[in-house]
Amino acid sequence: MRYFQDPQSNTCATCIRNSTSPAAVPYGPGGCPENFVFEQREVCATPPSEGSFQQTDGVELARCSSLGAGWVTSRTIPQGCTANTSSGTVVLEATKYVCTACVPAPVVKQWEEFAGPFNRVCRGAGPTDNNPSYFEVRQKVPSVEACQALCLEELGEEGCKGIEFNRNSKRCELWKRKEGIWAFSYPQWEGFTCLRYGWPGKFLNPVNGGLDQACRGAGGQNSAGFYVVEAVRHMEDCRARCVAAPICKGLEFSKGRCEIWHSEVVTSEAKAGFECLRYEQTCMLPPREFLVQACDVWLRLRYLLTQKAHKDIQIPNEEGDDGVSEDEAPEDEESESTEHIMEFMDKLQKMDKSHLSEAQRKKMEEEKKKKRLQALKFKMRQSWLKRLHAVLRHSWDLLSPQTRASLLSYAATDCGTGFRQIVEEAMHDQRDLEMIEETGINGFLARHLSSLALGLAEGTRCVTWQAEHAYERLGRRP
């Protein structure tokens, strides 16, 4: 079951404020919602006139309603249990209530796709970190499922941190890196899959909004016995360590510091520069701050792609010399497609140039060179966009219609009508990736926003890390 805030009034319609999931929901004829399980409890109650009593048969002295929202009385048993006075001398019969509810299913270790169901290879501490000590290689493994089974069989529940599998070569890597898998890379060849095993990161949800919140245990306590501290640079590194930990109930991240909580994260305390996430097997819309930050990051990234993506890139000329840089190349017209440019060049090639003067031929060659540069740059832009677009392009399809509608409303509120149009266009973009230009950037922006709603990238630091990763793919830093 999913819970959403009403983006128009900024109030909760079917959720608890500040991204807190309910402890229980009513058990109905259709059974329990997704990620909830059925639970039954028995309680006893005595008439108020009888005084204060203590239970003797191991059940609570209460009514179903006192267990919290979502608990419903399914059966009443008069005189179903006994209660003694505090002195223990008087025995009275009390009514027993059988209470039912659907409670959040406990989070268990499981497999999850890392960085999307696309061509990805696993990496350790960064996109280039592929230390052979992180994994063991098995050849001629028939399927990704067989690779998963080998990991659990040979490394065990605690030792197996994930797998990398290639469906073409049948090569299987059993990942055992203690800190887990937090980075990925784009392989040169096709057929790769990267899967993590552990506490599923998709269920790490922000506590009281997540940002500027420090995790606290029962009663607001902050004991060093609640967690293990590790040094990290990025939020995603902290998340990966939580996923890979023997026990992880949640995490707290601040600059350079990651707390892996093995005790329950009950609440949080406002503290600048901190982020607090805990495991809740529900999927909730993040607070407005995440969407605002994402909007800003990706609008800036969009500008980079359209204006500066090929700065300092050397494009060889026809004679094969050192090439012409972007600074020396003429400005291309965004409206001209590769097809039109190539059509022009084809006509130019077939023209009879014998009657032209030297100046005219030189001008024609310069025009040809200009068009060729435009075609090459356009093709390179498509290649960059294809890679960037693929990072999280699956996220939008995983969202429910309600979440999509909420994202559109947030985009309209926080980024203006122009950004709303961008997201709407991306929703209906079914064109081939090779045809991506502006639409491709739009789709990338929208799908990255949706990844936040899925809980895949909570927090501004995570968004910043992903933006940095995108910049690195372009060979530039923000």
UniProtKB/TrEMBL annotation:
CDD domains: PAN_AP_HGF
Database matches in InterPro entries: Pan_app
Residue ranges of domain Apple in the record: 215-283
Signal peptide: none
This protein's name: Apple domain-containing protein
Organism lineage: Eukaryota, Sar, Alveolata, Dinophyceae, Suessiales
Annotated organism of origin: Effrenium voratum
Disordered, as annotated region: 314-338
Pfam name, any one: PAN_1
